[in-house]
Design brief:
9 helices; mainly alpha; 251 residues
Length: 251
């Protein structure tokens, strides 16, 4: 009996991965222990969740989005990340095969967790950024070992450029514009796309962030200079698109 194809495996695994990503995205920024092995529980009443309450997507629908003990609402982040992980697997499976497929899913799933954490808390957990960088080194070594130098240059260049921009902005405006986490994230993405992809990541992220800011301003009826948007999710989007489709052609 032959093994199932890789695309089927990643699609089946995706909701389970998304469930784990939701744990990472909520526990790591809060500094909570037991990320990998701690028992899941309702944050309101402390009820330990059983196996039937932990089935990705299905449990949320079965429980109608509420804890069956106290009736407290289940955070919508959980099913959203499970659906997001599935969407990433489908997107990657449509464009890649073999080792590229597994690398693409690993990248996309880590970026999804980082985007969710930053959107909720304005924090990019170092553990996730480090895992992203390590995954990029492993993927480069396995899939394109001849290009490893360019990818390492991308890591250093991405971090240094954003760190310099953040320092200049802080000196000019007297407050933070870019966090150090954004610089670390761009550096980790540089490992995946090499230095040639950095400009594409930043351009896609900047355009997406501008559109999001305009939409936020329209919904609120105003757009102020002090309004905050986490930049990590937009960097994640730029990195994902650049990895799948290659750098933008400039000129």
């Amino acid at each position: 009996m032959s093994a199932p194809p890789a695309w089927l495996l990643v699609i089946v695994l995706a909701p389970l991965v998304g469930s784990f990503l939701s744990v990472l995205a909520t526990r790591l920024p809060a500094g909570r222990g037991g990320v990998a092995f701690g028992r899941s529980a309702c944050p309101r009443c402390g009820h330990r969740l059983g196996a039937a309450e932990l089935v990705p997507l299905i449990s949320f629908l079965w429980l109608r989005g509420a804890c069956r003990h106290c009736g407290g609402r289940i955070d919508a982040l959980y099913p959203l990340l499970e659906l997001g992980a599935l969407g990433i697997a489908l997107w990657a499976a449509a464009l890649t095969r073999g080792g590229d497929l597994w690398a693409s899913c690993a990248l996309g799933w880590l970026l999804l967790a980082l985007a969710a954490a930053d959107w909720r808390t304005y924090l990019l957990p170092d553990a996730l950024v480090l895992a992203l960088a390590a995954g990029g080194i492993a993927a480069t070594a396995l899939l394109m070992p001849a290009d490893i130098v360019g990818h390492l240059i991308g890591a250093g260049g991405g971090f240094l450029v954003f760190a310099a921009v953040a320092a200049l902005y802080r000196r000019w405006r007297g407050r933070d514009g870019l966090g150090r986490g954004d610089a670390k994230l761009l550096g980790a993405l540089g490992v995946w796309v090499a230095w040639q992809g950095l400009a594409s990541i930043v351009l896609i992220a900047a355009v997406a962030a501008l559109l999001a800011a305009l939409l936020q301003g329209w919904r609120r009826g105003r757009l102020g200079a002090a309004d905050r948007l986490p930049f990590g999710p937009f960097l994640a989007l730029g990195g994902w698109i650049t990895w799948l489709y290659g750098p933008l052609a400039f000129g």
